[in-house]
Structure formats: C-alpha cells, structure tokens
Amino acid sequence: MIGIFLGAPGTGKGTQAKILGEKLGIPQVSTGDILRQAVRDKTVLGLKAKEKMDAGELVSDDIVIGLVNERLALSDCNGGALLDGFPRTIKQAEKLAGIIEKSTKPLDFIVNIDLDDETIVERITARRVCPVCDAVYHLKHKMPSKEGICDNDSSDLIIREDDKEEIVRERLRVYRDESAPLIGYYKNSDGYFNIDGSKSVNEISDEIYLLIGKLG
Ligand code: AMP
Fold this sequence. Notes:
single chain, 216 residues, alpha/beta, 7 strands, binds adenosine monophosphate
C-alpha cells in the first residue's frame, strides 16, 4: 500500500501520516525528516539542502526523488509506505508514478488536508520541535510533560528556523505556486479524499481510517 498525504505546511499531514502508519504497521516517509537528518549529519546533500530549507524554498526535485527512491527500496517499506511531504511538485508526482509502476505496491489513496493560511501561521509559529528526534509539540495543543523539554530524549525543544512567521509565509507562497497544482493532478484518481484540517487530530485520524477502510 502506498498512501500520499498532501496539504500545505502545518495542516497536520505529518501527524496524520504517523498515526495511520502506526495503525497500519507501515512507515511514514517524510522527505522533510530525511532532509533534516542529512542536515544534522552534515552530508554533502544536507549541506546543499540546508540553505533552501531555511529560506522556506523547495530542495531540487532530483535530490528529493533520489532520496525517496532509496527510502522506498528499504525492507521496512516492503508492505508499503505513507508519503508525507512528497510529492511537492508535478515533476515529483510524475517520477513517483514511474517508481510505483515499477514496484509491486499500488497507490491506494491520496489524502489532501485543507486549512486556511491564517490558521496555518498561528499553528506553525506555536510549534516546537526536538532537534534530536524530530518529535513535534505545540504550545497549546500538545505540550511536553516538562516545559521546553522533549518527552523522548530530554533535549531542549527549539523553534525550527523555517517555522518563523516570515519564512512560514514564504513556504505558503511556495506551496500555492508549486504544490497546490497537485490537487488537480490527483483529484480524479481513485482513492482521492479531501479532509477538513480544522477538525481535531482524533477526528481527522478517525475520518481517514474510515475512508481508507472503505477502499476496494
Ligand atoms: P517539511 O518538514 O515537509 O515541511 O519540509 C521542510 C522543508 O524540506 C521544505 O520547506 C523544503 O525545503 C524541504 N522539502 C521537504 N520535502 C520536499 C520535497 N518533496 N520537495 C522539495 N523540498 C522538500
């Protein structure tokens, strides 16, 4: 099974991909997480990607497609994967179609999570992350047990460079220009769903689980 999570930054697609992945026993593949790990490891690719990521721009299609290709070939993806943050351009979607065609795993569903820009900005600027394990917290809705400290590894939580308001607005502009056209690309495919991202995390995850259960 391959599932795709579409949506602007801050709509909750990462949270939902993680929850569904745990329910289905298949990995969430987040290109953002893979790139941030490369930046932390200071690999050549990470160094190339960092500037773009900090500015809220997209990393080149070729780099990201290469990463996804490698990631999907790992054995934990034998039963499929939930793609979070990929594809983000039409070119990436076309390459993904080629990867899926060559594999034995079908594209089962595409979930688009919809949310207005002001709610997104309010949500993202209240986000805090663990620089070590990438766990995501929120100042109102998902506080760590100890203020400012990660529950998993006790690291000090930080604001991601690209979660600062000015950069968030740039990411939203990039989303409208580069990624929103993916809705048109996928919307007539079998298994395409649009979800209202203003509902609670639990309501959305139940809705997605129900919709996927109804598929073929
Ligand atoms: P995310 O955590 O998904 O919001 O991704 C953080 C940043 O990583 C983005 O703002 C981009 O700079 C980069 N990135 C993640 N996924 C992609 C992708 N599919 N294509 C290009 N850049 C990406």
